[in-house]
Each structure stands twice: as C-alpha cells, then as structure tokens.
Amino acid sequence: MALPVPRSVRILLLLLAVASPALFLGRRAAADEGEWLPEQIAGLDFTALQARGLELGPDDLWNGEEGLLSAAVQINGCSASFVSPEGLIVTNHHCGFAAINAASTLERNYLEDGFVAADREAEIPAQGYSVSFVRRYDDVTAEVHAAMEAAGDDPAARWKAVQAERRRLEQEVQGPFESAIVVPYFEGREWRRIVRTVLRDVRLVYAPPRDVGEYGGETDNWMWPRHTGDFTFFRAYVAPDGSPADYAPDNVPFRPAHWLRVSEDGVEEGDLVMVMGYPGRTNRYMTSVAVAVREAVYYPLRLEVFTAMIRFLEEDTADDPERRLRIESLLKGLANAQKNAEGMIWGLARNGVVDRKLREEAEIRAWVAADAGRRQRYDGVLDRVLALDTEEAARMERDFLLDQFRYRSGAFRRMLSAPDDESAARVAMSAVDHRILELLAGLARELPETQRLEAFDAWDAEHGDGERGPEAWAELARSLAPAYRELQDFRDRLAGLRLEVGPKWISLQEEWRGERFYPDANSTLRLSIATVKGYQPRDGVWHLPFTTVAGMLEKDRGEGEFDVPDEVRAAAEARPGARDIRVCFLADADTTGGNSGSPVVDGRGRLVGLNFDRVFENVAGDFGWNPERSRNISVDVRFPLWLMREVWPAPHLLEEMGLPTR
Ligand code: ASP
Q: 193 - beta bridge partners?
C-alpha cells in the first residue's frame, strides 16, 4: 500500500538517496557503545575490560541479584546514587531543580543562594520526589506473549491485552517494600518485571547556588568546555520500622544495602570509567523513514513550539518576580528541550544519519536475499517496518499538533475532559493558554492537504476573526474529540502491529550486526563502559577532556549566566592549587536524557563523577553512537567536595561519606 509521506520527508529521502556516502559510520559497534542491562554484564569481555583497568569482576557489578549497580537509583526522571549508609543521595542540580524551586520563596531563595542543611532536622521535604532502586528482575516474557496470542488477530486488541497483562503482573507484587514495573526490551521480544523499592520521603540536603549548579546557563547547556557544578544532595527517609512511607517528621534515614565510596583520586585521560543509571530513550534501531520524519518534521515543530512557549511564559511573568519564580523549573525544562531539538536537527544532518540508515537498509536487503535461512526468517521484515513508519510519518504533523494542544495548554486538556459544553467553557484560561492555543491554531491552518484536521477547519472558518474566548476553545475541544479517539485507535493498532514485527526487526539487526547487542534505553537500569577522552568538534579544533576552576573564573562576566559567586572566587584565590581543581570531564559513555545524575565510577567502582550532559555534537547520538563524537559530560566529584570543604562548608556530610573534612 502506498502511503503519502510528507513532502519534506520525500525531498530529504530523495536527496539522500543520491548523496555521496561520505559520512558512513560503519555498522560494527565500537568498544564503548552500549547501554548494557545488568543481566548482560556477565557476558561482556572481562579480559579486555580488565586490561583497560577494571579491577572488578562481573559479580561485583551485578551477580544476578545485586552488586555495585544496586547503589544507582532513579530519582524522578533522573539518575542518582546512594553515597552513605544513612540514605544520602547525590544527583545533579538540574535534577534537584524542581525541589529547590518549590522550596524557595523570594525572601529565602535557595535557587539563588544555595542550601546547606546544618543537620537532619533542617533537611527540607522535596515535594513530588521519590527514589527507587531495583530489588529483582523476573522474566515475564512467556506470560506477556501468551496474553498477546490469546487476544486473537486484531492488532489493537493484542496491544491492549499486553497492557492489561502488564498491569496484572505489576499488581501481583504490590507490597509495602515492593512495587513493580513490567517493561519490554528489544521491542517486546523480551519482557521483564522489575521489582523495586520506592521511597517517597525524600529531603533536600545540600545544593549550591544556581550560579554554580547551573553555571553557563542555556549558553553552555549541551556544550563543552563546561564549568557547571551540576550536583545536589538529597536523603531518603523511611518509617521507623524501615518501610517506605510518605513524609512524616519522625521518619528515619533509609539504610541502603549498597552505597558508593567516593574517591578523590580523580581520573586521567585514557582511564576506564563506568556510568550506572537510567537512560530514558534511544532510537538506535530506527529505519530511514522514521529518522527522516523526525529530522524534517518532528524536531523543527518541537523547536518552534518550545521557542514560542518560552517567550510567552517569560513575557507573561516579566513584571512579576513571584510568578516568575514559580515557573523557573518549567522554563528550564522547556529551554533544555528547545536546545535539544536544535542539536537533533543539526546533528542528524551533520552525522548523515538518514544516509547511513539508507545504506544499511540496502545492505540488509542484500544480506537477507543472499541466504535461504535468512530469507525464511526475515523476508519482508524490513518492508513491514518501513510501511508502519511510513504510515506514521504520513500523519506526523497532524498528530504532533493534536498532542501539543493537550500537552501545552492545561486549560485545553481540562476542556477535553470536561463532562459537557458548559463545564468546558467555564475552564479558567491564562494569557499563556490563549497565546499558545493561537500559535497551535496557526500551525493547524498550515497543515498539508493530506493531513487536514477537518473539525479544526470547520471551527476555524466559524471563529476565524476576532477574539476567541473560552467558549470558542471549548467548542474546538469538543469538536476535536473524535480526532483524539481516532488517534488513540491508530496508535493502538500500530503498537499492536509493531509488537508483531518489531522483535523480528531487532533479531534481524542483531544477527546482521553480528556482535554483542544491547536494547534501546527505556528508563531502566543500565551500565555504560567508557574511556576518559577528548574529541574533535570540528575541523581544526581539539577539545581536551578536563576543565578547571581557573576556566570557570575566566568565563566570569559578573552577571547573568556567567556570574561566579564571590565566595567561590575568594576560595579559589585563598589557596594555592585551588584554581587547578577539576570541575568537569569528558568520556565516551553511551548516555542519554535520564542519565543525568548517574554515578560515574572508576575501575575500582569508586565514585569519581556525576554524569550531567552530552556535548552538542552528540545530541543526535540517540539515533546512533559514534566513537568520534559521542561524549558525555560529568562533574568531577572533587569540585563539589571542594565547595563542601572550603566554600559552603558541610563537614557533617563529608564525614558521613567517610571523607576528611579539610
Ligand atoms: N542533560 C541530560 C539530562 O538532563 C543528559 C543527557 O541528555 O545527556 O538527562
């Protein structure tokens, strides 16, 4: 079946089909590619790893039930680690940002001034935060596949049956210490039930001022060289009997079975390091069509919407510092996503990802055709995946807009779920709601012929001129309801079809690549093995892998995003050698969003850094790891420790981590 692919994507694919193969990246995974599952660790080449400096054996990392990886926890969308037997946790400042923001007022502004809890009493509940860690994995592949088969042939019904089975398997293990999530690996070829402990009483312990924790702001975000002290400490609490509990004053610090020892020995270029954390989402096995539509349609639209959204929010709060403070965290998230979209558009083009995918697909076709066994296993698999991707691409703009209407405007979302017209029209709308909805309406007006939203067009014809008040938007919400239902049905059907062909597509690639093979990131615990190293961002430039306090001071402009606090400058100048303290380092770990806050450990498993970002050239690394430019950025732990000794002292925390206080 021929489906209409958006014109922009057709052009891109056409151009690339005839383009030179200049940027072909090769198909073999290089040494440090891979976000390994705990269960895959035993299968890694430990002889080679030990030759590179690893002093631990597979069982030390993960023995099937526990290991060093057990110290890595998930905190909201980020990663973190236990660093003391008393439940002390370290993550990134940007991961703690929402909690610091929520605890701040204009008078007591912890974002601006930082926060040091003098003792346990002074630790502040982190609203909306929870910490979870893995207790056990159950292989539930057979159960999920059986539920799918029992649902018959209808793809949507199969998808729904899988969802229901996931919920059932999750509920089976609910208890005070345990909660479970059921997740697919390899597009549903395998399923695991991850039994976790979730701790809900999390308290803020130590945060540097924003001028350190976010030094360089959006200018330096996703960039190297970097001088950001992106760290924050929390502590997890439990009920006096040790069970997870909501915040209560008499809760006690949680005592983890595993925590990391902090090392002040540092790392040097060429050293092996390991990143343990919860990477959110990668798309390493996508087809050319799926990548092309993201490059040509999805990320440009995201960029446009996020850029406008930031402007609306900033303008709306320009004269009101109190309201502005309340949206700092929201703004930061939008700005991060905005720059991520820029990096994706730039990186997908520069890395020639679609070009590489097209070449790989041609190779795969030839490889399948060349062997009877392969033909039997994989004939038509690539075409079926491409057909699904084409179907999705053909309506990407339209579906993106439908999503944005409900994601970007809380009022519109409430209207969509209001029981009747009258209640929908009574939904309160802010000035920002109005502006964002007008922006989206403008984009809906420009949808290509093949993707029109008829209900929108009819509504627009009627309400095209003049002010559109809540009644008009409520009417739009009501008339779009069938489009949302159709979108859900479409997605259920596609998800069901992907459950069928996705695992085959993965097996095909695994066999074709002929190497150790890791599943795409899915917010579950992974290990990435890396080397500390610099890189070449562009012709004639080499980036060294370390930055120092001296470099931080050099960037200081005394205002805005580069405003080194006086206390830091004074401490740097007070002691010889302080200027040489390392602030950040680069390595080639395989990381993505969600890896923020991940502990970075040395060959002996000791904490040497906190992952917090990637370089701009690696934003598009989600679609393919590359030895030349896949670099992650970490804070060197010695920088936070210096601040905790000499700038905003916290001797009690240093002691707790078993470190000297001076
Ligand atoms: N900065 C990212 C995050 O917030 C990390 C990354 O994407 O590399 O998770």
A: 138, 182
